[in-house]
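Dear H.,

Thanks for agreeing to be a second pair of eyes. The structure we're designing against is below in token form, covering all 197 positions.
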């Protein structure tokens, strides 16, 4: 009888050890999965701004870069520009703005596209008339650009990711030689509309 009780207690301990081992293995697998997703998932951010003067417009092309080792697909994005006499109001919501300059009441819907691992694509070109750039250079206006990208990564069950950017465009030099206009700018990160998840 004592041998039976001892075997029963020993068996219970073995079951408890097995349960704890299985739980630890499950937690370890979850940690490994989380680490894999966080290091390999697609992550979009603005890597650079390319600029060109074309005819009577200063064009800014924000470049989205995927630093992950897996694709971002599908990706939608929207980019905006607006001038202010000072800084945007503290309660400014950084809305999407239509081509005619009116604020959209809902999220803008740019085209859907794919960004491969370690690849980069341009957002839509921001076309700013040269007279506005002259006002910025003269200190009469301040120019801000902002936008967002929403995308899925390659891992099942993960949420839609969103990256946002906002920069002030500072004109450091501007010249005219007949019809030819040259503009040098800097892009300074600005405000709370700079985040990603």
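And this is the sequence the design step returned. I haven't edited it by hand at all.
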């Amino acid at each position: 009888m004592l041998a039976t009780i001892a075997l029963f207690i020993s068996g219970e301990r073995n079951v408890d050890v097995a349960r704890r081992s299985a739980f630890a293995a499950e937690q370890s697998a979850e940690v490994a999965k989380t680490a894999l997703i966080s290091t390999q998932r697609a992550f979009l951010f603005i890597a650079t701004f390319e600029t060109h003067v074309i005819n009577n417009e200063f064009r800014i092309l924000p470049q989205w870069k995927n630093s992950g080792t897996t694709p971002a697909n599908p990706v939608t994005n929207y980019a905006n520009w607006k001038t202010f006499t000072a800084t945007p109001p503290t309660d400014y919501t950084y809305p999407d703005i239509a081509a005619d300059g009116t604020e959209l009441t809902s999220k803008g819907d740019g085209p859907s596209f794919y960004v491969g691992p370690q690849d980069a694509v341009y957002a839509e070109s921001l076309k700013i008339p040269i007279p506005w750039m002259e006002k910025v250079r003269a200190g009469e206006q301040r120019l801000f650009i902002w936008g967002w990208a929403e995308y899925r990564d390659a891992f099942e069950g993960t949420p839609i990711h969103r990256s946002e950017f906002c920069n002030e465009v500072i004109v450091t030099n501007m010249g005219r030689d007949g019809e030819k206009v040259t503009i040098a700018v800097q892009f300074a990160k600005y405000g709370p509309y700079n985040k990603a998840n």
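Two observations from my side: Residues 31-35 have pLDDT under 50 and may be disordered. The CA atoms of residues 168 and 188 lie 5 Å apart.

Warmly,
E.
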